Amino acid sequence: EAGVAQSPRYKIIEKRQSVAFWCNPISGHATLYWYQQILGQGPKLLIQFQNNGVVDDSQLPKDRFSAERLKGVDSTLKIQPAKLEDSAVYLCASSPGTGGTETQYFGPGTRLLVL
Amino acid sequence: AQSVTQLDSHVSVSEGTPVLLRCNYSSSYSPSLFWYVQHPNKGLQLLLKYTSAATLVKGINGFEAEFKKSETSFHLTKPSAHMSDAAEYFCVSDTGRRALTFGSGTRLQVQP
Fold first, then answer.
1. What is the C-alpha to C-alpha distance for residues A66 and A98, in angstroms, rounded to an integer?
2. Which terminus has fewer CB within 10 Å in chain B: N or C?
3. Are A100 and B46 in contact (CB < 8 Å)?
4. Residue ranges of the alpha helices (H) in chain A?
5. B102 contacts in A (CB within 8 Å)?
6. Is the pLDDT of residue A94 over 90?
7. Contacts for A21 with CB less than 8 Å, ≥ 6 apart
8. Tens-digit pLDDT profile for residues A51-83
9. For the residues of A42-64, what is the DSSP string, one character each?
10. Which one of A23, A47, A102, A110 would you mutate to disrupt binding with B, by most B Cβ within 10 Å of its Cβ?
């Protein structure tokens, strides 16, 4: 079974530029998550989708971050414009059902450096 | 609100000795708790989870954790450390809103 795929693996941009990350979850998984992991901290949930609907985006900085999951399969996370403090690893995860106590399967992450 | 506190940011053990990674939780209800492991340049992987069944939970690679309500703890243990256990470990709880809250992590170093 293929795992969660993410691209790119690494990205370096200058502040005020835009960047987009892509995630393809495990086939058939209904729920998709985006996390931000700042160096030395645990991952923090940014947004959770169930199929193509948003379940929780309470911690997403909506003035600069946006995410979509068209057709309920793969997803993109965009930052526009980027700030220095957005330097982090962006993790995508998926789970089969509605989340909660389900096991989440994580991708390898995209490491973003904003200069 | 639900949260977890990992009491040690870094733990160093010798190969073949026991591992103890400490986690305390705070919750107004009985939580679901997890331990995830993150190896360098690899994705997070579930080690084990507690969902109000048996209080002693066995996971992969010889790890186990015990849910102690009286101490609000969910410590991760392993009888004998292996070099391949060197990684970052996260204690995690559910928020009751279908999302997860991660602790700050404990880096486990295993000395030969």
1. 22
2. C
3. no
4. none
5. 42-44
6. yes
7. A6, A7, A8, A11, A76, A77, A78, A90, A92, A110, A112
8. 889 988 999 999 999 999 988 899 999 999 999
9. --EEEEEEETTEEEE-TTS-TTT
10. A102
